[in-house]
Design a protein that fits this description.
5 strands, alpha/beta, 6 helices, globular, five-stranded parallel sheet, 17% strand, binds D-ribose
Length: 142
């Protein structure tokens, strides 16, 4: 599966560790940044969210310090459902109930090992549909 991933400077190290850890599990599209030099998270969130919204990729991962800035930016795009996840249970529920298509993680508040478990949970869980489908369809405002 192709997965597009991006971060800001705060998420750079965790992004690289995730790509290395899951090297054989996903075909990664690394949208940067490519160093821990300070950057602005919207400059990385918008292009990735756009590539999910236009169907170029089905799933993405975004990482910043808290996960909030990069997730808030992604969720401005119609049909993007970016879920801030810091434990595997929330990652699974974001797929089961919200059909999340972007996994967002808070690099400064999650250990590497928990982040790896969060990635595993997110990508091994399917959307349940049913009553959740109706709710997800009500998210977009246009
Ligand atoms: C960068 O210092 C930090 O503000 C950013 O990574 C993120 O936490 C913003 O929401």
């Amino acid at each position: 599966m192709k997965v597009v991933i991006a971060s800001d400077h705060a998420g750079y190290e965790l992004k690289e560790k995730i790509i290395a850890h899951f090297n054989n599990d996903f075909e990664w599209v690394n949208n940067g940044p490519f160093s821990s030099e300070s950057v602005d998270y919207p400059d990385f969130a918008h292009p990735l969210a756009n590539s999910i919204a236009n169907g170029e990729y089905e799933f993405g991962i975004l990482i910043c310090g808290t996960g909030n800035g990069i997730g808030m930016t992604a969720n401005k795009h119609a049909n993007v459902r970016a879920a801030l996840c810091w434990i595997p249970e929330i990652a699974s529920l974001s797929r089961q109930h919200n059909n999340a298509n972007i996994l967002v993680m808070p690099a400064r508040f999650i250990s590497d090992n928990v982040a790896f478990e969060v990635v595993k949970a997110f990508f091994s869980t399917d959307f349940e549909g049913g009553r959740h489908q109706r709710r997800v369809e009500k998210i977009n405002i246009q």
